[in-house]
Amino acid sequence: FWFAMANFKGHALPGSFFLMFGLWWSVKYPLKYLCKRMKNNCRSSLFYQRLDLIEGLLKVIFSLVGILAEQFVPDGPHLHLIKEEDHTWVKLMNWQHSTMYLFYGLSGVVDVLTYFPLNIPVGLDRLSLSLAVFTEGFLFYFHVHNRPELDQHIHSLLLTVIFGGALSIFLEVFMRDHVVLELFRSSLTILQGTWFWQIGFVLYPPSGGPEWNQKDHSNIMFITMCFCWHYAIALILMAINYSLVYWYVLRTVSGKR
């Protein structure tokens, strides 16, 4: 996994992270909601607190992997920001990606600290996650200036997901355990994950596939439509997971009677 984001594998790495978290949340939050709704304590509050702790640790680990991958690829900056010879910047794109991972890592640290009895304000974990997602979008907004038209467009679609997710998570600071917001966040996280993979396939076709014409407007029209298909698939996955969780909780309730 030692690669920068400016290739196919570099987009597949964060895409896999987001996809994994999105799919997990699409199971976790329906389970929590349905157990409470059906008045079936199939899982204790301590169980969900431990899940939050594990999620926080995974965020920290994945962020460290991302930072190390961006910094120590063969042509990476290796923690050098400025060249001493001519005082020019060193691999700023890698530094931007490292900064994105850094804020997700900080969000994971807050998740971990929230587990312990430190009297951390309620909602700080959601606020730190919202800030991490917003920082990702802020960096990407200035990431694709002066790039080809298709490149800019496919990243602008990603920005709608990122800023939508940041806003949704920010609302969770004040509306905690709101299942609609949690499911919406899950769907956008799945979409972000699959869209990172799509960007990799379009801009850096694996196995020597044909390159996309960056200036063909029909490609932009297709990519926009493809983005909608990705979200439709994300919603279908959400519905499947919700149904499976509902069936599981229903069987658990019936088994206790």
Assembly category: single chain
Q: Total number of helical segments?
A: 7
Strand content: under 5%
Helix content: over 70%
Mean pLDDT: 89
Determine Rg (CA atoms, Å).
20 Å
**Total number of beta strands:** 0
* 3D shape: globular
- Poorly predicted runs are none
Terminal CA distance reads: 50 Å
Query: Quick one: biggest sheet?
Result: none
Order of helices and strands: HHHHHHH
Q: Your description of this structure?
A:
The protein has 257 residues and is mainly α. It has seven helices and no strands. It has helices at 8-37, 45-71, 92-115, 124-141, 149-174, 179-203, 217-256. 36% of the residues are buried. The model has no long low-confidence stretch (mean pLDDT 89).
SSE map:
Layout: H1 8-37, H2 45-71, H3 92-115, H4 124-141, H5 149-174, H6 179-203, H7 217-256
Helix pairs in contact: 1-2, 1-6, 1-7, 2-3, 3-4, 4-5, 5-6, 5-7, 6-7
Sum this structure up briefly:
With 257 residues, the protein is an all-alpha fold.
Quick tags:
257 residues, 0% strand, mainly alpha, 74% helix
